[in-house]
Each structure stands twice: as structure tokens, then as C-alpha cells.
């Protein structure tokens, strides 16, 4: 699966970030939230919080993962927008595919909401 990663630093607490992540992406009751398993973490270290949000539709869907790591008075947030490759869509069909552009759009929406609450949010 192809992925785009957004690295951010914020002064917001983990609970605030989690709330913004879920409230921004919970626009339908069909949105699924879950925990990313430790061995699925693409980063070298363990995050203090890791989860995903996804929506599957008849013609595809989107998926965004979030990893939050405590760094003293700063939280490092990594948003991963996942999407199926062209080959994956051809092999498995649209029903089992995720749109990377839709996933990117959802991840960007989370960044914008974080920026509203924390104007000092930095992209790394």
C-alpha cells in the first residue's frame, strides 16, 4: 500500500489530539476506528498512542493512521494517509481499495483542525 506521512510537532496533549482526530473524521457512522497493532507501526519506535480511522465504500474508501509520541513538552504526531496502488486496485477491485488522495484529504483536515486549536503547530 502506498503512503504519505505528515510529521507534526504540537503542544497539545495526547487526549486533545485524539479528540480532534476522531471528531474530524467521524462524519459518518460507518467510519471505523481501531488500534494499529505494534508490528504494523512503520516507524522505528513505539508510539504512546497509535490508531486508525477508515471508511470503506462500494467504490473504495480511505484510511488514515495516527501515531503520537510524547517528547517532553511537545507531542510528535505522524499522520499516515494510505492508499492502494494501481496494481492493487487491478488485482483486488475497487471494493477492496483505498484512495490515497481521499486519505490525504482526510489527513489534511485533521492537520487544519489541530492548527485551529494550536496555532503554533509545526510541520517537520
How would you describe what is shown here?
- By secondary structure, the chain is α+β, with helices and mostly antiparallel strands.
- Helices cover 30% and strands 37% of the residues.
- It has three helices and six strands; from the N terminus they run E-H-E-E-E-E-H-H-E.
- The chain has a six-stranded antiparallel β-sheet with strand order 2-3-4-5-1-6, covered by helices on one side.
- Strand 3 (49-57) and strand 4 form a beta hairpin.
- Helix 1 crosses helix 3.
- The longest helix has 18 residues, at 100-117.
- The protein is globular.
Could you give the topology of this structure?
Layout: E1 2-10, H1 14-25, E2 32-35, E3 49-57, E4 60-71, E5 74-83, H2 86-92, H3 100-117, E6 122-123
Antiparallel strand pairs: 1-5, 1-6, 2-3, 3-4, 4-5
Give a brief outline of the structure.
The chain is α+β, with helices and mostly antiparallel strands. 30% of the residues lie in helices and 37% in strands. The protein starts with a strand and ends with a strand.
Amino acid at each position: 500500500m502506498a503512503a504519505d506521512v505528515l510529521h507534526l510537532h504540537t503542544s497539545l496533549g495526547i487526549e486533545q489530539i485524539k479528540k480532534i482526530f476522531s471528531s474530524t473524521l467521524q462524519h459518518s457512522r460507518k467510519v471505523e476506528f481501531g488500534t494499529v497493532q505494534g508490528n504494523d507501526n512503520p516507524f522505528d519506535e513505539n508510539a504512546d498512542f497509535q490508531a486508525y480511522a477508515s471508511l470503506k465504500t462500494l467504490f473504495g474508501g480511505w484510511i488514515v493512521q495516527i501515531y503520537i509520541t510524547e517528547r517532553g513538552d511537545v507531542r510528535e504526531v505522524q499522520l499516515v494517509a494510505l492508499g492502494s496502488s494501481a496494481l492493487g486496485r487491478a488485482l483486488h477491485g475497487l471494493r477492496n481499495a483505498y484512495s490515497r488522495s481521499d486519505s490525504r484529504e482526510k489527513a489534511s483536515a485533521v492537520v487544519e483542525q489541530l492548527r485551529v486549536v494550536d496555532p503554533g503547530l509545526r510541520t517537520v
